[in-house]
Each structure stands twice: as structure tokens, then as C-alpha cells.
Amino acid sequence: MERNTEDVYIPAFYASRSILITGGTGFIGKALIEKLLRSCPDVAEIFVLIRPKKGLNINDRLKKTLSNKLFDVLRSKQPSCFDKIIPITGNVAAENLGLIPSEQRMLIERVSIIFHIAASVRFDEGLKEAIFNNTRSTRNICILAQNMKNLVVLLHVSSTYTQIDKPIVQEILYPMEYDWQKMIKIAETIDDYSLKTLTAKCLETMPNTYIFSKRLAEQVISDYSKSLSCIIFRPSIVISSSQEPVEGWIDNFNGPVGMLIGGAKGILRVVLADKNIVADFMPVDAAVKALLIAAWKRGIRTEDKMIDVYNCSSNKIKAIDVGNIVRLGFNITKNFPFENIIWKPSTTITKSYSIYYTLVMLLHIFPALFLDAIMKLFGVRPILLNLQRKIYVTNSALSYFLLNEWTFYNEKLLSILDNLSADNKKEFEYPYKIIDVYDYFKSGVIGSKCYLLNEKIDQPALEAAKRHSKRMELADTIVKTLFVVMVLCILYYKNIFSYIINIF
Fold it and tell me: pTM for this structure?
């Protein structure tokens, strides 16, 4: 008989357990580690799979990760808790996860919960790299899990967007037309040139290799769920925290927050998007709470091997379209302007490709060329054209998601959030019914100033930013006025006015 999950205390479930996290140095991974240490203080240990990178060994990378401001609350209240974090040398893209045999044996002996979060989210990645990072890594995690003596749950973080060939995505498994085992074999054996040819056929209705490889990974989990207690957890766009440990924490420029920053800095002038598309996003703290609740709920159900699927989406929570996000962002940044903006903030949203490409040239490329030339004259390294190139590539990659809309049903997710006991609600409740969208985005803008751009938000700093913003508004007015005067002068000297008058 299934136990009543409401009667089981979530921190007690995680107490004395050894947990393995892949992707622990990433956005969701960092937030998960922080929440585990803060709300489940009796957890035995947290193994974090880390690969050496950019001259840093795994200890250096862990130290850098833990220096993030996200962990300030823990640092002040529970400084000794960081001793529970154990870095493990590994690389999810490598065969056998790049594990050292001695550390692999340790994981097999001690781990009882796995959170497989690691993935490459590059939309322009080659098919081979995407399959190695997102599909083969999931297979290797499952092989490792099968050997673990005490494993109770394996949670795989997927994405709601793995199923975007369907207008409505339910919290169920969907069949895949490609065999994941064959695709891994192809990626391992076929040359890059042939793979490029094969990529177009494989993707078909899918916009990029990320979506394709993550969908394959769901099939991996589905097949291994016959012998493992598994969860497929599909978050939508995960962005800044809404409540804890601090409001507005974020460590990347992805999603609507990045778009707001670009627009508020005066860099992003045009976006290829449908302003009426409802954006689906989840605060990172809400996603992490749901993730921990899902693992707990599955972990105490030991008598069956059913796979649980959750869409961690904002459907039926707070709907807001792209146009309103942009308007909301500009209203907020009037009171909390960014420092050193390069022009008056203004972003045009269009779903017309011809208008978009024209405005990119007029508002992005030509001004960047002009300002870079001025920077060269003053001996400063030109950067704006390269920056605009990156913005163009990013916008092009995201345009598919900004021009189309899906419904991600999340009844099962809302059910596990709603049916918590009073004790569990103290640490794991997410009050999605009363969240204020304006306040949330305000904390997101302030958080991006603090955590991404290292800008101050005290009154003197804000007043200085406002003064600079007014100067840019004045400069914008002057330039527009001069442009109109110039056009009128050209028309006058070319006798076009006389010609027009004579016609009428």
C-alpha cells in the first residue's frame, strides 16, 4: 500500500542520504545544492560531478561556485555545511562519465539519490556533441545508477520544449521515432561531414540539436525505468529566484531577464518575436522546490517502478505575453536604471522577417560600426559590432520560441505543490497563486544589476544612473531632430518641395 506522502517530512527523507548531482556548477545545480544544505541540513553528503575547465581543477571550480552570492545566507548561518560537498572528477560528455575507478566505486557504495541536471544548452551545437552531452551522458548515468546498491530515485532534468512539435504537451511520455541506442552509435562512429548531412533529416520539425538530443534522453530514462525508480522533470525557461534564499538571484543572461537587460542598456533595439506570445518561465527557487518534492514523493514509493513525469511550467499560474514583459521591464528600469547605458532604452518587437532584418541593419549594425570607428579614433578597442553579432545569433536561435506558443499542462506539478503537509509547507511551499508579476520582475531587474552586472542599488548610484539615462534621452532627441532637419534640408535643396506643391 502506498504511504501517505503528506505525513512524511521532506527533510527527514533526505537526512543521512548521499546525493549525486551532475550539473552542480550550473544555474539550477547551484540553487539545488543551496536549498538542500539550507532546508535539509541533515543530508549526509552531496557529490558534485565536475570537470576541470579553463585551467581550474575541480576543487578550484567548486570553490568558485560556492563563492557565488547565492550562498551568502548559508555562509553566515551554516558555514560548516559546505564540508558536506564532495567534488568528483568527471565529464558527462565522456564515456563512463570520465569517472576515476575509485570514485566510481565510492558512488556505487554510498549514493541513494541522483539529480541528473547536466546538459549542454547550446542551440547551435553539432549533432555529435549534443548527443554526447545530453543523450549518451543520460545512458551512462543510468548504467551507473543500476550498479548503486542503495539507489531510491533517479531524477532526470529534461525540458518542456522537448515536445514542441505538439501544440499541447501533457505530463506523459511520448514515443520517439528515432532509436537512442542507434543515434549514440552513429554519433560515435560516423564522420563529422556525414553527420552534418544527417542532422537536417534527424531534426525535421525540431529547431535545433539540443531539443533532439534531450528528447532522445527521455527515451533513455523511459527504457531504464523498468529497473530504476525514475522521474522526468521538464522545466520550461528557468529564470531568477522569486523568494529564496534572496529575491532576484540569477547567474546567466538567458530568457526574458537577458532580453530586459539588453533593452535597458540600449543595446537590444529590435527583437524577432510575436508580442502576443505568452512566455512560459519558472523562478529557479520554485523549480528547485518542485524538483526536491518530486524526488521525495517518488523516493518513498518503493513498491512500484512507474515513471513520474512533471511539466514544471507556468501554465495556469501567471500568464504574461512578450509585449507586456518588455513594457513591464522598461517601466521598472525607469526607477532602477542600469549604469552606463549606451543609448536611450527602446526595443521594437516584430514578427516580420523583412522588417527585423532592416531594423537590425539600421539600429544595430550601422550604429555599432559608427561607434566602433569613434572608439578606434580614441585608441579604445572596438567591441560593439562583435557584441551585436552575438546578439543577432542569440536572437536568431531564440526566435523559434518567441514566434510560437505551446500549452504545457502541469496538473501533476501543481498537485504535489498543493498537497503538502503544514510542516513541509514551511520550507517547500511555493505560493504561485498569489505571486505578483510586477514585484517578481522588479526583483529580477534589481537582481540582474546586483548578481550579473555587479552594479550598486543604493540611492547615490541610482541617482547617478538616472542622470546618465536623462543625458542619453537628450542625445536621442538631438540625433532624431538632426536627422529630420537633414532630411528636410535635402528635400529643400533638391527642390522636391516645389515639385510636390506643383503636383497638387
Answer: 0.91
